[in-house]
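To the wet lab folks,

You asked to see what we're planning to order before we commit. Fair enough. Below is the target structure as C-alpha coordinates, and below that is the sequence we designed to fit it. If anything looks off to you, flag it before the synthesis order goes out.
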Protein backbone atom coordinates (compact mmCIF):
# COMPACT_ATOMS: atom_id res chain seq x y z
CA UNK A 1 0.00 0.00 0.00
CA UNK A 2 1.28 3.51 -0.86
CA UNK A 3 0.94 6.47 1.47
CA UNK A 4 -0.02 9.87 0.17
CA UNK A 5 2.40 12.63 1.02
CA UNK A 6 0.76 15.78 2.21
CA UNK A 7 1.02 18.86 0.04
CA UNK A 8 1.60 20.89 3.22
CA UNK A 9 4.73 19.04 4.32
CA UNK A 10 6.92 22.16 3.63
CA UNK A 11 4.69 24.47 5.64
CA UNK A 12 6.52 24.04 9.02
CA UNK A 13 9.87 24.57 7.26
CA UNK A 14 8.66 27.77 5.61
CA UNK A 15 7.58 29.16 9.00
CA UNK A 16 10.97 28.23 10.49
CA UNK A 17 12.73 29.89 7.50
CA UNK A 18 10.65 33.07 7.85
CA UNK A 19 11.42 33.27 11.59
CA UNK A 20 15.12 32.75 10.85
CA UNK A 21 14.99 35.70 8.42
CA UNK A 22 13.28 37.89 11.05
CA UNK A 23 15.92 37.02 13.65
CA UNK A 24 18.75 37.69 11.15
CA UNK A 25 17.34 41.11 10.19
CA UNK A 26 16.87 42.01 13.87
CA UNK A 27 20.49 41.02 14.60
CA UNK A 28 21.69 43.30 11.77
CA UNK A 29 19.59 46.18 13.14
CA UNK A 30 20.90 45.56 16.68
CA UNK A 31 24.49 45.61 15.38
CA UNK A 32 24.00 48.97 13.65
CA UNK A 33 22.16 50.40 16.67
CA UNK A 34 25.03 49.51 18.99
CA UNK A 35 27.96 50.49 16.76
CA UNK A 36 26.63 53.60 15.01
CA UNK A 37 26.38 57.17 16.28
CA UNK A 38 23.74 57.66 19.00
CA UNK A 39 22.81 61.07 17.56
CA UNK A 40 23.54 62.95 20.77
CA UNK A 41 24.49 66.59 20.30
CA UNK A 42 25.71 67.03 23.86
CA UNK A 43 27.69 64.95 26.30
CA UNK A 44 25.32 65.90 29.16
CA UNK A 45 21.85 66.48 27.70
CA UNK A 46 20.00 66.05 31.00
CA UNK A 47 22.12 68.65 32.81
CA UNK A 48 21.84 71.10 29.92
CA UNK A 49 18.09 70.60 29.82
CA UNK A 50 17.85 71.42 33.51
CA UNK A 51 19.85 74.59 32.92
CA UNK A 52 17.71 75.77 30.01
CA UNK A 53 16.29 78.71 31.99
CA UNK A 54 19.85 80.08 32.23
CA UNK A 55 20.09 79.80 28.43
CA UNK A 56 16.84 81.73 28.04
CA UNK A 57 18.07 84.41 30.49
CA UNK A 58 21.33 84.79 28.54
CA UNK A 59 19.38 85.13 25.28
CA UNK A 60 17.21 87.85 26.84
CA UNK A 61 20.31 89.75 28.07
CA UNK A 62 21.85 89.48 24.60
CA UNK A 63 18.64 90.74 22.97
CA UNK A 64 18.60 93.71 25.35
CA UNK A 65 22.11 94.70 24.20
CA UNK A 66 20.80 95.32 20.70
CA UNK A 67 24.07 94.25 19.08
CA UNK A 68 24.18 92.67 15.64
CA UNK A 69 26.92 90.45 14.26
CA UNK A 70 27.76 89.16 10.81
CA UNK A 71 30.36 86.55 9.88
CA UNK A 72 32.29 86.35 6.64
CA UNK A 73 34.95 83.95 5.37
CA UNK A 74 37.32 84.88 2.56
CA UNK A 75 39.24 81.95 1.07
CA UNK A 76 42.99 82.58 0.80
CA UNK A 77 43.98 79.16 -0.49
CA UNK A 78 43.36 75.51 0.11
CA UNK A 79 41.93 74.95 3.63
CA UNK A 80 42.80 78.46 4.77
CA UNK A 81 41.22 81.87 4.77
CA UNK A 82 40.28 84.94 6.76
CA UNK A 83 37.46 84.80 9.29
CA UNK A 84 35.93 88.21 9.92
CA UNK A 85 33.09 89.33 12.17
CA UNK A 86 31.45 92.74 11.90
CA UNK A 87 29.48 94.17 14.84
CA UNK A 88 27.04 97.06 15.06
CA UNK A 89 24.67 98.43 17.67
CA UNK A 90 20.91 98.81 17.41
CA UNK A 91 21.28 102.09 15.47
CA UNK A 92 23.72 100.51 13.00
CA UNK A 93 26.86 102.18 14.37
CA UNK A 94 30.02 100.01 14.44
CA UNK A 95 31.05 98.50 17.77
CA UNK A 96 34.70 98.91 18.66
CA UNK A 97 36.60 97.87 21.78
CA UNK A 98 35.34 94.29 21.82
CA UNK A 99 37.27 91.16 22.68
CA UNK A 100 36.27 88.66 19.96
CA UNK A 101 37.03 84.95 19.61
CA UNK A 102 35.97 82.43 16.96
CA UNK A 103 35.32 78.83 18.03
CA UNK A 104 35.49 76.63 14.94
CA UNK A 105 34.41 73.00 14.87
CA UNK A 106 33.45 70.39 12.33
CA UNK A 107 29.71 69.55 12.38
CA UNK A 108 30.11 65.96 11.17
CA UNK A 109 33.23 64.59 12.81
CA UNK A 110 34.77 64.91 16.26
CA UNK A 111 37.84 67.03 15.48
CA UNK A 112 39.28 69.25 18.23
CA UNK A 113 37.76 72.71 18.43
CA UNK A 114 39.92 75.51 16.99
CA UNK A 115 39.81 78.79 18.95
CA UNK A 116 41.08 81.95 17.22
CA UNK A 117 41.24 85.48 18.65
CA UNK A 118 40.04 88.05 16.14
CA UNK A 119 41.92 91.35 16.02
CA UNK A 120 40.18 94.70 15.56
CA UNK A 121 40.64 96.21 12.11
CA UNK A 122 38.38 99.28 12.55
CA UNK A 123 34.74 100.14 11.91
CA UNK A 124 33.45 97.28 14.07
CA UNK A 125 35.34 94.64 12.05
CA UNK A 126 37.44 91.92 13.69
CA UNK A 127 39.45 89.42 11.63
CA UNK A 128 42.11 86.70 11.75
CA UNK A 129 43.65 84.11 9.45
CA UNK A 130 42.47 80.54 9.89
CA UNK A 131 44.17 77.33 8.81
CA UNK A 132 41.68 74.44 8.85
CA UNK A 133 42.51 70.74 8.73
CA UNK A 134 39.92 69.68 6.16
CA UNK A 135 37.87 71.19 3.37
CA UNK A 136 34.10 71.25 3.75
CA UNK A 137 31.60 72.69 6.19
CA UNK A 138 32.62 74.19 9.54
CA UNK A 139 30.49 75.66 12.32
CA UNK A 140 31.80 78.96 13.68
CA UNK A 141 30.67 80.40 17.00
CA UNK A 142 31.65 84.03 17.48
CA UNK A 143 31.88 85.32 21.06
CA UNK A 144 32.27 89.07 21.64
CA UNK A 145 32.80 90.65 25.06
CA UNK A 146 32.99 94.19 26.36
CA UNK A 147 33.11 94.36 30.14
CA UNK A 148 30.15 92.32 31.43
CA UNK A 149 28.36 92.44 28.07
CA UNK A 150 28.44 89.20 26.09
CA UNK A 151 27.20 88.61 22.54
CA UNK A 152 27.32 85.26 20.73
CA UNK A 153 26.18 84.03 17.35
CA UNK A 154 26.73 80.98 15.17
CA UNK A 155 27.17 80.57 11.45
CA UNK A 156 28.42 77.92 9.04
CA UNK A 157 31.20 78.40 6.53
CA UNK A 158 32.35 76.30 3.59
CA UNK A 159 36.09 75.82 3.10
CA UNK A 160 37.57 74.58 -0.17
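Sequence we intend to order:
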Amino acid sequence: MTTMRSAYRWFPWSIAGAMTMVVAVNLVFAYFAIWSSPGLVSEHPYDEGNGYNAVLDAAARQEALGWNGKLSFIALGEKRGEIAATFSDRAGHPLDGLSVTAHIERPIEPLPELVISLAASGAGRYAAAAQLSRPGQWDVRIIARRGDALYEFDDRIFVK
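Structural context that might help your review: The chain has two domains: 9-38, 66-159. The beta strands are 68-77, 80-88, 99-105, 114-122, 125-131, 136-146, 149-159.

Thanks,
Computational group
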